[in-house]
Amino acid sequence: MSGTLYGVGLGPGAPDLMTLRAARLIESARVIAYPALAGGDSFARAIAADLIAPDATEIVMDVPMTTAREPAQKAYDKGASDIAAALDSGCDVVCLCEGDPFFYGSFMYVFARLADRYDVQVVPGVTSITACAARAGRPLVARNERLTVLPGPLPEDELRARIEGAESVAIMKVGRHLPKIRAVIDGLGLTEFATYVERASLPQEVVLPLVDAPENAPYFSMILLTKGADPWL
Amino acid sequence: MSGTLYGVGLGPGAPDLMTLRAARLIESARVIAYPALAGGDSFARAIAADLIAPDATEIVMDVPMTTAREPAQKAYDKGASDIAAALDSGCDVVCLCEGDPFFYGSFMYVFARLADRYDVQVVPGVTSITACAARAGRPLVARNERLTVLPGPLPEDELRARIEGAESVAIMKVGRHLPKIRAVIDGLGLTEFATYVERASLPQEVVLPLVDAPENAPYFSMILLTKGADPWL
Fold this sequence. Notes:
Two copies of one chain form a homodimer. By secondary structure, chain A is of the alpha/beta class. Chain A has helices spanning 20-28, 43-48, 69-88, 107-114, 128-136, 156-164, 178-187; strands spanning 4-9, 31-37, 57-63, 93-97, 119-123, 147-151, 168-172, 194-198, 206-209, 221-225.
C-alpha cells in the first residue's frame, strides 16, 4: 500500500495563521518535503519549524532562482521522484507550501507530477491576498463586487487593460515590477485607492499607501486596489 | 480603556480548517458575536461551537434572508451597537465570520460601522475558493496566470463578458443562479473546464463536473473554471 501525499498550505507566514489541520499533519509527519532556494533557506520550512519532529525525514527541493524554467523543472522532477520513493515504501509525505497550494503555490508542480499515481490530499491555506487585506484594513469584495488577481510580471499593456475594467484588484509578486505597476496605476488615476503590503503577517511587515512605497520591493509584496470595495450595507 | 474587536475568519466550514490564531481567540473569548439567519441557525457559530466557552456572552445578529437591504442594515446596526457597548465596558469581542472577513464576509458590515472608533484586528481565514479547488483537485493559478472572481448574481451579459476574457474563474454564490451561469458557460463552449462544488470541506460536500451538477444549488456553492490553469513547470 502506497502512502498518501498531503499538500499543505501554510498561510502567509505567521505560524499561527496555519490551519489546525495543517498543524496536526505536520506534527505527526514522519516524512516532510519542501522547496528551498538553491543553497539557501526555505520559507516554508521556517513557518512550520516549531512543529516538525526532530527525527522526521526531510526531502528538500532545491529550486534555483532563475526565470529559466528548465533548472526549476529538474528540481521538481528530483523532488517528485524522492517523494514517490517514500510513498512507495508506504510512508505518508507532508509537502509544505507557503500560502495555499493551488493559488500560485509551489505544490502544484509536485501535484502535476504525482497526482495521477498516488492518493493526494490538498489542505487549503490562507492566501496572501486576504492576509494583506486584513493587515491593510481594506475590505476586498462585498455583495456583487468582482475581484481580479493579476501577477505583477504581466506586460504593462495587459496590466493596464485588466486594471481599467476591474473593481477590486490584487497584484501579486510585485518585486522588481513595482515601477512599472506604479506607472500603470498612476496613469489610470487610481493611486489614491492603492495600498502596498510586503511580508504580511511577519515581523518585518510593511503596509503603506502606494504613494509612499519603497523603490525596491521584495518578491513577497502586493498591491491592493480597492476602489470598488464598499463594505457598507 | 475600550476593548479590541477581533474579526475572525473561520474558513470554509470544517472546524479544523480554521487557523490556530482563530481557535486561540475563540477559546479565550468572553464575548462572542456572530450573524444568524433570523430565527434560525448560525453557520459561523456551528463551525466554532466546540471552542466557545459555556459561560461566554453571545451577541447574535439576526440577519433576515431578503434581497432588500434595509432589514439587514438594521440587524447590523443593532449588532454593532451591542458590540460597541461590550467594547466600551472594556471587554474584547470576537466576531465570527465564515470564510475570510474581507472576502464577501459578513464582518465587513460590522467593520464599516466600528473601525473608526475602536481598535479592530482582522484575522484572515481560508476562503471557499481555495477550499473548493483543493477538494476538486483543480489548481487555480500558477506563474503569471490571472484569476477572476465573479458573484453568480451578476447579470448574464456581464458574466459572459467577464468569463470570455478570463483565464481561471471562480463563480461564487451560485445558488438559484445556476441555470443562468450554466447557459453562459455552455454558450462559451467552456463546460468541459467547469467543476461544481457545494459545501466544500463539510460532510455534505458535493464535487461534480458542471455537466452533472444538480438543478437546485444551495447558496454555498461555487463553479470553478480552470481552462487557464497549467500546474506544470
